């Protein structure tokens, strides 16, 4: 759906909503047990044997003097051995190029560390530090106005008619229900909502809680901003921030019919046994879209009841692998999207808990026409006037609304036909008819984005 409603628009630079986390200079400023760091360092030396202080500093994302202190402790325990640089190297006498590896006893301890916790990456942040940062980056802490939402939706055809509802919905911080026919752009608009804030947020690589390291940062769900790399590479101490955090765009996470209850709890992957944060934890300070509500394998009531406490109190209880429970912040925009009748799939009592229920409709004819021209132009195609006449006749004949998903899909099929036939890059009435017949089934129903 990312291209369905889109116009050409330049992207505004994002600014962090919260102050950058300061670089810790002592172990007590990390707020996590030193033993956790020792075990993590052992695992790093398994993955990256014979590493020097500089490499370990980058891997662990803590200061080099902390790495030196950890190495000293592990050497006293006979877990780490020293490897000097090659004697013919002019760097041979440089302590910065002394390399470290594990002893036989160290390898055994590293195996035990992996058995307890398979996480490998930058040092985790404490749950208390994570909680504090998420609260500072609360969506509701910076209210948006009409110009903000207008700018955020400026690349969405037909959004002008919804701005007066979308703006208050963002400011409320409450859950949303987006409903309407398939292909009306519900999910795409939902993922664009937080752009009106024009801010970036800090996401931790991992969080340490009640004896467990929970991986939070995900390349699939989080997008670092350009300023992140510039600051991290700076050699000036005052320009740096705690590298255990990544400066990202606000998370926009979408899950549909594949949603299971396990995805909402701390869990591990089948292959590497790393404990992964649930979707709602990854989506903190952003938006979590539950798409295709009513098409999940579990009953709708089960899904909706899972969110009652988080929606009311802005925190969530999670069960950890060691049997303990932790409380995490639930500071995000939760959006449910469905093309089914809300009254038929959900309890009226739950519907009342949802702050905003927003219905999506097909585009107006003028908006639909403009979207067709924009999509065709973006693919170096033109549309004959007679083709538009044919298009509107097909809509009337098959009682199909002006859904914003259709131009992208039908133009894509038309382009395939044109390439195959080696024809001029023009969508003629004949090509349009062929594309329509391929896209729609015999009863006039076509697949569409939401």
UniProtKB/TrEMBL annotation:
Q: Which domain of life is it from?
A: Bacteria
Under the heading InterPro entries, the entry gives: AAA+_ATPase, P-loop_NTPase
Traced from the root, the source organism's taxonomic lineage reads:
Bacteria, Pseudomonadati, Pseudomonadota, Gammaproteobacteria, Vibrionales
* Residue span(s) of domain AAA+ ATPase: 172-364
What this protein is called in its record is: AAA family ATPase
Organism whose genome encodes this protein: Vibrio ziniensis
């Amino acid at each position: 759906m990312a291209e369905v409603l889109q116009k050409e628009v330049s992207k505004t630079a994002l600014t962090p909503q919260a102050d950058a986390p300061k670089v810790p200079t002592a172990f007590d400023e990390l707020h996590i047990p030193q033993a956790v760091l020792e075990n993590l360092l052992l695992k790093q030396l398994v993955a990256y044997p014979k590493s020097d202080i500089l490499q370990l500093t980058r891997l662990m994302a803590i200061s080099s003097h902390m790495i030196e202190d950890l190495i000293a402790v592990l050497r006293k325990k006979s877990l780490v051995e020293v490897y000097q640089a090659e004697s013919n190297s002019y760097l041979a006498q440089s302590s910065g190029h002394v390399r470290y590896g594990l002893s036989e006893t160290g390898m055994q301890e590293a195996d035990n560390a992996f058995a307890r916790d398979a996480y490998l990456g930058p040092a985790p942040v404490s749950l208390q530090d994570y909680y504090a940062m998420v609260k500072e980056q609360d969506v509701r802490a910076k209210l948006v106005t009409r110009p903000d939402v207008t700018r955020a939706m400026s690349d969405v055809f037909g959004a002008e008619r919804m701005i007066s509802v979308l703006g208050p919905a963002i400011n409320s911080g409450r859950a949303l229900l987006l409903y309407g026919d398939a292909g009306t752009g519900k999910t795409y608009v939902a993922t664009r909502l937080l752009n009106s804030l024009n801010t970036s947020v800090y996401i931790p690589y991992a969080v340490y809680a009640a004896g467990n390291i929970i991986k939070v940062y995900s390349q699939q769900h989080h997008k670092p901003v350009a300023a992140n790399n510039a600051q991290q590479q700076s050699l000036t101490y005052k320009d740096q921030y705690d590298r255990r955090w990544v400066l990202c765009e606000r998370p926009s996470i979408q899950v549909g019919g594949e949603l299971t209850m396990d995805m909402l709890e701390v869990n591990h992957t089948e292959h590497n046994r790393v404990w992964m944060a649930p979707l709602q934890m990854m989506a903190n300070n952003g938006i979590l879209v539950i798409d295709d509500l009513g098409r999940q394998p579990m009953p709708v009531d089960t899904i909706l009841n899972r969110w009652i406490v988080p929606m009311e109190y802005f925190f969530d209880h999670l069960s950890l692998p060691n049997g303990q429970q932790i409380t995490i912040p639930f500071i995000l925009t939760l959006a449910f999207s469905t093309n089914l009748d809300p009254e038929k799939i959900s309890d009226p009592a739950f519907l009342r808990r949802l702050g905003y229920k927003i219905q999506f409709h097909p585009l107006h004819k003028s908006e639909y026409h403009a979207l067709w021209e924009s999509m065709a132009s973006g693919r170096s195609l033109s549309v004959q006037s007679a083709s538009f006449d044919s298009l509107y006749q097909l809509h009337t004949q098959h009682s199909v609304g002006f859904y914003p998903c259709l131009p992208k899909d039908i133009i894509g099929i038309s382009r395939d036909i044109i390439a195959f036939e080696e024809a001029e890059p023009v969508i003629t009435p004949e090509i349009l008819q062929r594309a329509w017949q391929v896209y729609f089934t015999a009863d006039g129903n076509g697949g569409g984005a939401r």
